[in-house]
Amino acid sequence: MPRWAGVAWDVALALLSVLFLCVATDLAFSPQPGDTGYGGPLAARVAAYYGIAVLMFLPGFFLASDRRPLVRLVPALGRVPLKTQVAACLALLAIGFVVVAVATGFLPRT
Q1: Helix axes of 82-104 and 42-50: crossing angle, nearest 10 degrees
Q2: Averaged pLDDT for residues 87-103
Q3: pLDDT at 40 over 70
């Protein structure tokens, strides 16, 4: 894959990550009537929505990214085997499921 295509892909993933974080922030801090978190405690909404965005989606975006530019910026990343990176991302996904499950238990049912 040409380097420019990898950089373009990484920029697209970064923009998608920013979009997910913006949506999580909006849902956590200004829920609308009918939203899952409406009327629930702020801490539970933050844990639930950021748990989904940060712990469940961002690791997948990292795995889907072209890591060549990252390895140039952080050479130590090049020494971490792909299997270890996948295992770490899967662990974050599992932690995300637990965080979201616990946090949504504090949110009112609509």
Answers
A1: 150
A2: 93
A3: yes
Query: With left for phi above 0 and alpha for psi between -120 and 50, is residue 34 left, alpha or beta?
Result: left
Rounded to two decimals, what is the model's pTM? 0.82
Residues 6 or more apart whose Cβ sits within 8 Å of residue 45: 27, 28, 29, 31, 37, 103, 107
Q: How far apart are CA 24 and CA 2, in angstroms?
A: 33
Provide the CB-side half-sphere exposure for 97 (13 A, CA).
Answer: 5
pLDDT in the model for residue 20: 95
Q: How far apart are CA 7 and CA 64, in angstroms?
A: 12
Supply 89's token pair.
């991302």
Amino acid of residue 40: G
- Largest Cα separation within the chain, whole Å, is 49
Query: What tokens were used for 88?
Result: 């770490």
Among the residues of the chain, which ranges form H helices?
Answer: 3-29, 42-50, 58-64, 68-73, 82-104
